[in-house]
Amino acid sequence: MRRRIRPLGIAAATTLLLVLTACGSDTDEPDGIAEQSAEETADDADPVAAEEQVAEEETTEPDPASAEQGIVIVDGTEYSITELRNCEPLDDGVFERELELQGLGEADGERVQIDVYLQQANGVDLHEVSWSGPEGVFGGPENPNITLDAAGTSVRGVATLVDSMTQTETVQVDFDLAVPAETIDCR
Q1: Region 39-43: what's the mean pLDDT?
Q2: Residue 49's pLDDT band (boundaries 50, 70, 90)?
Q3: 55-75: per-residue pLDDT in tens?
Q4: C-beta atoms surrounding 152 within 10 Å
Q5: SS3 sequence, the chain?
Q6: pLDDT tens for residues 85-127?
């Protein structure tokens, strides 16, 4: 008789285990989904976790300061300008400046800068452009070809600039730059 009880006991234990396993979950959701829903609900209810998530998303957005805001081409080499400053025009009693724009960028770890001035002295146009980059520091000539659009939102031009150290070498500079709406004090 013992031989019959053992197989019946094992079958009964197995059946009991299956019933307990099936009844162990009090939801109709498959395993893991109830836990996931509970975690999501806990995160939604936690304002600190929500703020951390928003802060994390904000840090992954592109930095507007690093976005290209203009282009300068110096003797065929193109440079991206990523920062523009519309400076409050200098009022020194001699020059009447309409625009004083500084453009900054980087090339191979080196800072590049273009300065564009639309100005008059005694009613005569004396516009200027200067460039500082891997080629060196260049400036002049007077009256380069510069055009400020009618809305005052972009400036473009072409100039042949002279090496400020030796005054013997020249570079051809073409530029197209956005003009920020707000002016700042650059001095």
Answers
A1: 48
A2: low
A3: 454 444 444 446 899 999 999
A4: 12
A5: CHHHHHHHHHHHHHHHHHHHHHHCCCCCCCCCHHHHHHHHHHHHHCHHHHHHHHHHHHHCCCCHHHCCCEEEEECCEEEEEEEEEEECCCECCCEEEEEEEEEEEEECCEEEEEEEEEEEECCEECCEEEEEECCEEEECCCCCEEEECCCCCEEEEEEEEEECCCCCCEEEEEEEEECCCCCECCC
A6: 999 988 788 888 999 999 999 999 999 999 999 998 888 888 9
- Determine the average pLDDT of the residues in 9-31: 44
Question: Residue 137: CA atoms inside 13 Å, Cβ hemisphere, count?
Answer: 3
Dihedral sign (CA 178, 169, 186, 146): negative
108: left (phi over 0), alpha (psi -120 to 50) or beta: left
